[in-house]
Design goal:
- By secondary structure, the chain is an alpha/beta fold.
- The chain has a single domain, classed as Dihydrofolate Reductase, subunit A.
- It is built from five helices and ten strands.
- Strands 1, 2, 3, 4, 5, 6, 7, 8, 9 and 10 form a ten-stranded mixed beta sheet that branches.
- Strand 4 and strand 5 form a beta hairpin.
- 39% of the residues are buried.
- The structure holds NADP nicotinamide-adenine-dinucleotide phosphate.
- The site of NADP nicotinamide-adenine-dinucleotide phosphate has 26 residues, from strand 1, helix 2 and helix 5.
């Protein structure tokens, strides 16, 4: 199978948390995070798409709206649906069960307009696929019951021509692709912030059945101080230790 070059890029607090913390240093780091990844004048990753987990999309974009389903919709054609093959940027939404209440075909973030691709399994039924088609939102099917992460990347490469992508979080999505051996690089924008909260989401988070707890290691590529005491760390992912 083919795959793009994959970079996990995440903004974290000093204790590795990825939720927002209401201090000016967080806002400065968030601006720099977007500039590195997406903004046309400043980005350095050269990506054509970025992947986000279902919780991240609900938190930031679809706000836990139920999808506008028509249960009597005519059967849609089997397989993938490509509404926009030539977008400059894609927002790749990992939503295996088809839960997100999309109303728009694009996400505006980081100074870039991105066409939405919904990544589903066969568990997402006809009414959900019909809703995506009515809104002009592309979708790909990758897996029967469980998402096939390698197939997701293969389809992004072969159907949409993405040769470099970013995984934008959250922690469950990050860890599931990393544990599957599909990530080339981890980029952490470390913000000089903390709040001591014991249960916020973190950079990597195991959640069954998508991923499990297990040791991994990394090799430093670069460490660069940024504005306002932020630090940009880039790591290569080392091979998984022998079982
Ligand atoms: N600081 C940052 O840079 C940054 C970036 C992104 C997000 N965030 C924050 O992170 C928080 C959310 O993180 P999170 O770790 O809880 O959730 P998440 O990774 O955004 O989403 C997890 C959900 O995505 C789906 N999913 C993820 N990986 C999958 C896989 N391999 N196969 C199938 N489904 C998969 C599942 O959806 P279902 O539950 O529907 O099965 C899973 O429950 C939010 O508060 C967000 O704001 C921070």
């Amino acid at each position: 199978m083919k795959k793009p070059y994959v970079i996990i890029h995440t903004l974290t607090s000093l204790e590795g948390k990825i939720n927002s913390i209401a201090v000016p240093e967080f806002r400065s780091a968030a601006r720099q995070y977007e500039q590195l990844a997406l903004h046309p004048d400043t980005q350095i990753f050269n990506i054509r798409g970025y992947l986000n987990g279902r919780v991240t999309t609900d938190d930031n974009t679809t706000f836990y709206r139920p999808p506008d389903l028509r249960l009597d919709a005519a059967p849609v054609p089997e397989g993938d649906f490509i509404a926009e093959p030539d977008a400059a940027m894609y927002y790749v939404s990992i939503d295996p069960n088809g839960r997100l209440g999309w109303q728009d075909t694009v996400v505006d973030y980081g100074g870039v307009r991105a066409h939405v691709i919904s990544v589903l399994t066969e568990k997402a039924g006809n009414a959900y696929r019909d809703m995506l088609r009515r809104h002009g939102i592309s979708y790909i099917i990758a897996g029967e019951e469980r998402l096939d992460n390698a197939l997701v990347l293969h389809k992004l490469y072969t159907l949409f021509g993405m040769d470099r992508v970013m995984i934008g979080g959250g922690g469950v999505l990050n860890w599931s692709f990393l544990q599957a051996g599909l990530v080339d690089e981890v980029s952490v924008l470390l913000a000089p912030i903390a709040d001591g909260s014991p249960d916020s989401p973190r950079l990597f988070q195991a959640r069954e059945p998508y991923c499990s707890v297990g040791p991994r290691s990394f090799t430093l590529i670069e460490a660069r101080p940024l504005e306002d005491s932020s630090l940009w760390l880039r790591y290569r992912v080392n091979p998984a230790p022998a079982a």
